[in-house]
Amino acid sequence: MEFEFGGGYVLRRALREDHPAINLVCLRTGNSGRDATAREDDPDLLGLIYSVPYQVLEPDFAFVVEGPNGVCGYILGTPDSAAFYERAGREWFPPLAARLADPGPDESRWRGSDWARRAIHHPEFIYPEALHEWPAHGHIDLLQETRGKGIGRRGMRYLMTKLREAGAQGMHLHVSPKNLGAQAFYRTLGFSVVQHPSLPRDTVFMAAVL
User: Where is the signal peptide (predicted)?
Assistant: First the structure.
């Protein structure tokens, strides 16, 4: 256990046996912070793309929030985005792709989780030079039951401290343009929007010095 938040909620190191719970949290927050269950035909793929790889490849920076009803959130990161993406592309995604059919590039033919299957076959790692000043990155997703308790703020500060102790001088985040609540939350932690022509316009990038 790393520490207690109070009210029966604790932050602890994520384990391999937490993968199903991590997948579920990712699914239930996968629509810009809202539940994506109705949208997906494979409930595990979001977590296998965006969350579980951190527990496997960066276990020292992968934490779950556990409450009275079990795992209800996670806080994940890496101090070296370039190294993480290289390993993910070499070690993580090829075995996943080997057991999933590629739906092809025609988005008009995609159904259900085809977008995720396509992303697994053709992973996109967004780390242009404009973000190199902030080499660490992270993710946080919390179920509704945890919100409003200070868990996100304390958990993120804990991750940021861990990343700084590992040598990272700065941290960046990818945020959905629709998730205004998340953007406001990150601003309270010292993050601000990064704007550069090389960055995709369909994602908001925020960064902070650690």
Answer: none
